[in-house]
Structures are given as C-alpha cells and as structure tokens.
C-alpha cells in the first residue's frame, strides 16, 4: 500500500490501492488543479484533494490514506536526520538589561550562541555592556517592536512559539558543566 505521486511534463497522476479499490485523479497540471479547486491555499491541500469512497466525496484529510503518506514521510525524515546528523532548531530569544530594561536579541544557532544566552539568562545583573556580539551601551537603540516578532522560526516568520522552534532541552542548549537546576535535571535524565 502506498500513495503514489509522479509527474510527467508538469502533469500529476495520483493513484492509491486499498484492498482492490483503485482511486485515480485525471491528468492535471498544478495550475489546472489549483484552478479546479478554486482556492489558492497551498497549506490546506489535504482539504482540496477529494476521494470518492462508496460514491461519496470525502476530503483526503478525513481518510486513512494520509496515514500511510505521513508514516512514509516520518520514516524518510528520520533516515535523513541520521545521515545529516540531528539538527535541532532554536528560535531567537531576548534578554533584558537590568539597568535600562531594553531587550537584546540572542541568536541561538550554535552551541556557543546557546551558551552565551544561557549565561546571560542565569546572570540576574545582566547589562547591555555584557552583550557578547557588539560593544553596545544602554544608550543604543532597542530593536523595534515590529522587528522583535521575527524570531527565526522555520515554519512561520512571526511564530509565537511552536514545536519546531521552542526547545525544552537538548544537547545544544543544556550544559553538563553548568550548575543551574535546568541543566542538572537535563544531564541527569539523559544519563538515566
């Protein structure tokens, strides 16, 4: 069993076999399919693809067909992660200055950057002059509020926090040589 999608010269063919039932979608170009659906909602494509089951038209998202598609996708992603090494993503975070109250952005893309942010969060007396990336003072402008909403999430630029960009602890952002409770708990749970 499997969901087969193949393209030939810009055309799509879709076929699925479930216990001797074959569902086929006519030859359509992506533009023709979009026009046929009457919507431009690429993220909701599962609701725009319909399957006829027992003479009844049902959105693909409400059938078991996606179960096989999603499982195959998960297996593919797991094998890719192993071959590329696990890449955990962290969104940008802000730390406030104790003197002026301005928030400064910390990028969290590497272990070193995560350590700098971790140390800043652990320091109750963190000041703008301690900022590791640039030599700044409290007089320097704070990042605009409209810019702060962009935190670097891979799913959505203005994400407020999702499973893709919010980390509750990993080897990139937790440190065995740190004595804070969060790192101690993470390290002890990893060893257990």
From TrEMBL:
<feature type="domain" description="ULTRAPETALA1/2 zinc finger">
    <location>
        <begin position="90"/>
        <end position="187"/>
    </location>
</feature>
<dbReference type="Pfam" id="PF23292">
    <property type="entry name" value="SAND_ULT1"/>
</dbReference>
<dbReference type="GO" id="GO:0005829">
    <property type="term" value="C:cytosol"/>
</dbReference>
<dbReference type="InterPro" id="IPR057012">
    <property type="entry name" value="ULT1/2_Znf"/>
</dbReference>
<dbReference type="GO" id="GO:0005634">
    <property type="term" value="C:nucleus"/>
</dbReference>
<feature type="domain" description="ULTRAPETALA1/2 SAND">
    <location>
        <begin position="26"/>
        <end position="69"/>
    </location>
</feature>
<dbReference type="Pfam" id="PF23293">
    <property type="entry name" value="zf_ULT1"/>
</dbReference>
<protein>
    <submittedName>
        <fullName>Protein ULTRAPETALA 1-like</fullName>
    </submittedName>
</protein>
<dbReference type="InterPro" id="IPR057011">
    <property type="entry name" value="ULT1/2_SAND"/>
</dbReference>
<dbReference type="InterPro" id="IPR020533">
    <property type="entry name" value="Developmental_reg_ULTRAPETALA"/>
</dbReference>
């Amino acid at each position: 069993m499997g969901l087969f999608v193949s393209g030939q010269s810009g055309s799509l063919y879709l076929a699925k076999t479930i216990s001797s039932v074959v569902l086929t979608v006519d030859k359509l170009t992506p533009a023709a399919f979009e026009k046929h659906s009457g919507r431009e909602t690429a993220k909701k494509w599962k609701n725009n693809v319909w399957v006829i089951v027992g003479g009844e038209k049902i959105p693909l998202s409400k059938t078991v067909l996606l179960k096989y598609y999603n499982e195959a996708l998960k297996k593919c992603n797991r094998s890719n992660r192993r071959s590329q090494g696990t890449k955990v993503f962290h969104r940008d975070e802000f730390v406030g200055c104790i003197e002026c109250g301005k928030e400064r952005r910390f990028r969290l893309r590497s272990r070193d950057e995560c350590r700098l942010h971790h140390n800043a969060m652990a320091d109750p007396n963190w000041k703008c002059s301690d900022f590791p990336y640039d030599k700044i003072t409290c007089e320097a402008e704070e990042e605009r509020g409209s810019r702060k909403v962009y935190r670097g999430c891979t799913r959505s630029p203005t994400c407020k926090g999702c499973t893709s960009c919010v980390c509750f602890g990993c080897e990139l952002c937790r440190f065995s040589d740190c004595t804070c409770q969060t790192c101690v708990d993470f390290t002890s749970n990893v060893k257990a």
